[in-house]
Structures are given as structure tokens and as C-alpha cells.
Design brief:
The protein is α+β, with helices and mostly antiparallel strands. The protein has two domains: 3-142, Immunoglobulin-like (Sandwich); 152-462, Alkaline phosphatase D (PhoD) (Purple Acid Phosphatase, chain A, domain 2, 4-Layer Sandwich). It contains twelve helices and 21 strands. The longest helix has 16 residues, at 164-179. The chain starts with a helix and ends with a strand.
């Protein structure tokens, strides 16, 4: 789709969406805002929430970040905004520029992308937002990220509903995540449920993304964390959908419009993030490769009679060409890999079994040690994968869901690979330390509401054994 057509459709989609009052939301039967939610919780929770999160109506996400530069996505309802970045000495940085702007036909919603250069490691910066009259609307703290150091501490989350019952505790889940102080946050699918009323049209896609941006505490954090995202079926546009979804091209541009993860231009130096086929990406950071896979654009229907693939041949070849150079790697995917033990699953193993076996054969031949990371299933678990599976012992870590409904039966189904699991709302903190091109150490901790630890597991992954 051409950019002009996309923006025209986006404008039409947003024309009916605006920031409305609490009374108006109740009259329309809409979900409450974070401000409304504060009145539904205890006073102590209100104070904790207010300390960590902003409630100005401005939605901000820090995206792709390196040691000297960062990207931001800002959603707002102002006629016009201006941004400024200041350092700890109060000096204004001059390297800030707007790189993308979209708005509704009635100017009710704007989504803007901004980039800042000339950052320094260890410095705490302030991103300030002003209206056209020069009044400061919002201010968030952020840091640059040392993508060259060895080792990485990431948070992983998926499945974020905005139904009223889930909104009641989502702020506490995000507060618990921020307390773990990850260096990066990965949203690995269903960060927005676009299909609550059936398959989403282009108009609904944009509206639902904007609604999630308004409601989730993730986008109100006073201390920003670099965040990257990949999709699964619900933020793609339709439950259990794939290559036959009619709006997938628009959906891809819509998704990228809300996340600030544009590979840096070659003229500005080598980018730590590279775009692959469809909506896949590879991030190089911490001495690792992090492959963010697209399991929807080319996905075949379950057990399709023809071309029954999960990622598609082009994306597979792109992945394994990189894995030919030995380096510890994380492979992030919306759907589970080894989830075939559960009859109703959308796992790679059960949906595309022949393709799954061929991909496993390629993993077994690859010199790079990998850890698999997945979401989708509204259950958290760690599976130990055997040498018969991957050619060496490694893990699949599943983190789902952040604030979503749960599947009580999932934990009761036998799974010989499972070494830890929990049927509670959760996110994962994963610390990875590469020791050599063939070896890495992994520690995963599953957290719940209030920062409770559901489980923890440590393991050395050694491809050379």
C-alpha cells in the first residue's frame, strides 16, 4: 500500500476517536481511563500508581535506542505539540527531530515519531512535551542504552487486554515490571486486541491501537524503557489468522506506525536493528542476536493441504543465513514452538508439523546456540528441549499473559518438557550472558502482580557439548 493511501485510511479511522471525559465514556459504554481506574483501587495503590505513571493524556513509548540515539512514539490529542530533550545540567539538546506524523481528519488524534541523537551513556535525560502556547504538558525520563556491552537484561510480555476487569490491575503489572529495571522490553504479540468484535477492518485496526495507547500504564511510565514489538494474531487483525487475512498490508503499516522501531539510516551509522522479510527484525545487542519473527503474514491455516508453513521460506532462509555465523541468539515468536501437547494450541509444532520438523533439522545443523521465546497461550512456562529436538539442550521460555484471561486447563495437561509453569498473569525477566560463540547462560524469572515471583530457572546452553 502506498503511504498516501495508508494515511488517508488512517485519517478516516481516527476521525471518530477522541479523548473523552469519564462521564462520556460511561455513557458510551467505553473502557475507563487510567485516571478513572485510580478511583477503583485502594488509596495506597493510587499513590504507588501516581508515583510511577503520568496521567496527562499523552501516550509516550521509547523505542529503538542505542548508546547515542533514541526513538520515540507520541500519541496525543493536542492541536500541535513541540518536544524538547534536556540533559541533567538543564541544557537543551539540538539533535531532536520529528520523523513521522499522522492525524485524523478532524485532528482529534495524532501519532508522531521523534528521534534524538548526541546522547551519552549514563546520562538521565528529560523528554518534554509542550502545546502550541508553550505550556509544558508532560515530561518523561529516559536513558540511552549500551548496545555494545556484553550481556542483556530484558523483560518479555504478551497478551494485553483492555477489558474493564483487566484494566483494574494492569497498572500494578506494569509497575512490577518497571521495578525489575530491565534494559529492554519486548512485546511479543497481542499488545492490542483489535478483533474484539470480529476480524478488524483498517478503521478498527487504527482505533483499537489508539485506544490501547490511551489506556495502558505502559505508555504512561515516567521512566521510559526502550521497547520493541512483534505481533501475533490479535494485533495482526483477526483471531488465529494468517496469510489469508485481507488487510494484512495495511495492518503491517499500522503496527509500525505505533512503534518507534525504524532501522537507522545508513548515513547515520550502522543500525543495531535490521528489518527482515515481512515484519521480522534482528536486533544486535549485548553480544547477542535477537531475531523477532513474524508468524502471521505468511502463516498457513492449520494443517493446510498446500504450502503449510509458519514463517514462510523467505523468512526461514533469512533467519538461518544469520545463524550460520556462530553467535548466541534469542528467537522471539508470537506463537509457541513446542506447544503441541495442548490440543487447542496454535503452536508451530501442531499447526504446521512438517514445516516444524524441517525447521528443527535446520536448527540442529546451525552452529549458533539459540533460546526460543514465545507468548500467546495465557500461561507461563519453561520447557527443556533435548538434543533430539535441537541438537543440544536448550530452552523454550513462554511468557503470557500480562493482563489477559487465563487458561486453567493449560497447567493440567501433561507436558514432558515443562520444568516450570504458572497459571497466573505474568511477565518474564530474562538475563542472558554470552560466554563464547557456542555458549550462553540464561536466567528467567516469572513475575506476577505486586512483584510476586512465580518461578525462576537458570541454565547454561552449550552448543559445543
Amino acid at each position: 500500500m502506498r503511504r498516501r493511501d495508508f494515511l488517508q485510511k488512517s485519517a478516516g479511522a481516527l476521525a471518530t476517536l477522541s479523548f473523552v471525559s469519564s462521564a462520556s465514556r460511561q455513557a458510551l459504554g467505553q473502557s475507563p481511563s487510567p485516571t478513572d481506574l485510580l478511583s477503583l483501587s485502594s488509596p495506597s495503590r493510587n499513590r504507588a500508581f501516581a508515583k510511577e505513571f503520568s496521567d496527562t493524556g499523552i501516550s509516550i513509548l521509547q523505542g529503538l535506542t542505542e548508546s547515542h540515539r533514541a526513538q520515540f512514539s507520541i500519541l496525543h490529542a493536542e492541536p500541535q505539540i513541540f518536544c524538547r530533550v534536556i540533559d541533567s545540567q538543564g541544557e537543551t539538546l539540538t539533535g531532536l527531530r520529528q520523523t513521522d506524523f499522522r492525524e485524523s481528519s478532524d485532528n482529534s488524534i495524532k501519532v508522531e515519531k521523534w528521534q534524538i541523537a548526541d546522547l551519552h551513556l549514563g546520562e538521565i535525560y528529560q523528554l518534554q512535551i509542550f502545546n502550541g502556547a508553550g505550556e509544558k504538558l508532560d515530561e518523561r525520563k529516559f536513558r540511552s542504552f549500551d548496545d555494545k556491552k556484553i550481556g542483556l537484561r530484558i523483560a518479555v510480555a504478551s497478551c494485553m487486554e483492555d477489558s474493564p476487569s483487566k484494566l483494574l490491575f494492569q497498572g500494578e503489572m506494569w509497575q512490577a515490571l518497571w521495578a525489575t529495571e530491565p534494559e529492554l522490553l519486548f512485546l511479543i504479540g497481542d499488545s492490542c486486541y483489535t478483533d474484539v468484535d470480529g476480524p478488524a477492518t483498517p478503521e478498527i485496526l487504527f482505533r483499537r491501537f489508539a485506544t490501547s495507547r490511551k489506556l495502558f500504564a505502559l505508555y504512561r511510565a515516567k521512566q521510559l524503557i526502550p521497547t520493541l514489538a512483534l505481533w501475533d494474531d490479535h494485533d495482526f487483525g483477526a483471531n488465529n489468522s494468517g496469510r489469508d487475512y485481507p488487510h494484512k498490508d495495511f495492518s503491517a503499516q499500522n503496527f509500525l506506525g505505533f512503534f518507534a522501531q525504524d532501522p537507522w539510516q545508513v548515513s547515520s551509522g550502522e543500525s543495531s536493528l535490521a528489518r527482515g522479510p515481512s515484519l521480522s527484525h534482528t536486533l544486535r545487542a549485548g553480544g547477542l542476536r535477537l531475531h523477532m519473527m513474524d508468524c502471521r503474514t505468511n502463516r498457513a491455516p492449520k494443517r493446510a493441504s498446500e504450502n503449510c508453513v509458519h514463517w514462510g521460506a523467505e523468512q526461514e532462509d533469512w533467519l538461518f543465513a544469520q545463524l550460520e555465523t556462530a553467535q548466541p541468539s534469542l528467537i522471539l515468536n508470537g506463537s509457541q514452538f513446542f506447544g503441541g501437547y495442548f490440543p487447542a494450541t496454535e503452536a508451530f509444532q501442531s499447526n504446521h508439523p512438517d514445516n516444524f520438523e524441517s525447521v528443527l533439522a535446520r536448527f540442529r545443523k546451525s552452529p549458533s546456540p539459540v533460546v526460543l521465546i514465545s507468548g500467546d497461550i495465557h500461561y507461563s512456562e519453561v520447557m527443556r528441549l533435548s538434543p533430539a529436538d535441537m541438537g543440544y539442550e536448550t530452552l523454550e521460555i513462554t511468557s503470557s499473559g500480562m493482563h489477559s484471561f487465563l487458561l486453567p486447563l493449560r497447567g493440567t495437561i501433561g507436558n514432558s518438557r515443562r520444568i516450570a509453569g504458572r497459571n497466573k498473569n505474568n511477565f518474564s525477566l530474562i538475563t542472558v550472558q554470552p560466554n563464547s560463540p557456542e555458549k550462553l547462560e540464561v536466567e528467567v524469572t516469572s513475575y506476577g502482580q505486586g512483584g510476586v515471583i512465580w518461578y525462576q530457572h537458570r541454565q547454561v546452553i552449550d552448543r559445543g557439548v
